[in-house]
Design a protein that fits this description.
Blueprint (H helix, E strand, L loop, with lengths): L1 E7 L4 E7 L5 E5 L6 H11 L2 E6 L5 H4 L2 H8 L3 E4 L15 H10 L12 E4 L4 E4 L2 E7 L8 E6 L3 E6 L2 E2 L2 E2 L9 H10 L9 E4 L5 E2 H7 L1 H7 L6
Parallel strand pairs: 3-4, 4-5, 5-6, 10-13
Antiparallel strand pairs: 1-2, 2-3, 7-8, 8-9, 9-10, 11-12, 13-14
Amino acid sequence: MLINSFEAGPWQTNCYVLAPQANSECIIIDPGQNALPGIKEALEKQNLKPIAILITHGHLDHIWSVFPVANGYEIPAFIHGADRHLLTDPGAGLSAQTKALLPELIGTDDVFAEPSELIEVTDRHQISLAGLDFTVIHTPGHTAGSVIFTVSDPELTVFTGDTLFAGAIGRTDLPGSSPEQMNQTLKEIICRLPDSALIYPGHGPSSRMDIEQSTNQYLLRVNQGLSAT
């Protein structure tokens, strides 16, 4: 599996372009602010054809370019129903400080609306696209509709959004966040991922699950029966 990634926008959100190989169909995960040039570059470099967008959660820095990318390439976007409203009202998931900055960040060409084809996903939803078989796992905590996407090719690869980072976890102090749900997600889902799983988060470098289990202070606390935060 080819995994092309680049950082989009001032939040340096990881946008991923996945394909089984060059000269094939591909999937886009989390097209953030001003992601379109980076997406076009990845597509042209390996002659890829996008056929869908997968969204790990509805925060602005992950969905900023969903509308222009989905409608521009005439492809569907997949999102959990609990975060669907953030596509049209991204301010609902932001801190008061960030929300106050939105007028300075949003340009006249930015559109926050549902794309023409939007598909809601649910827990354990199976998605087969571009020759890749994804499993959607609902991981509430950072947002109510956060999900991770797993795919085996050949190792288990997990796109964790802002649920899990290398050495950290996502914030739980934002509107729609829940420390209690995050604790449950980490205990029952994240900490049960196999040690060999490759982790591709929404921000920062990739990692492996065995590294996170042994060094990530939040997972260490959960494994000790403590609260992550």
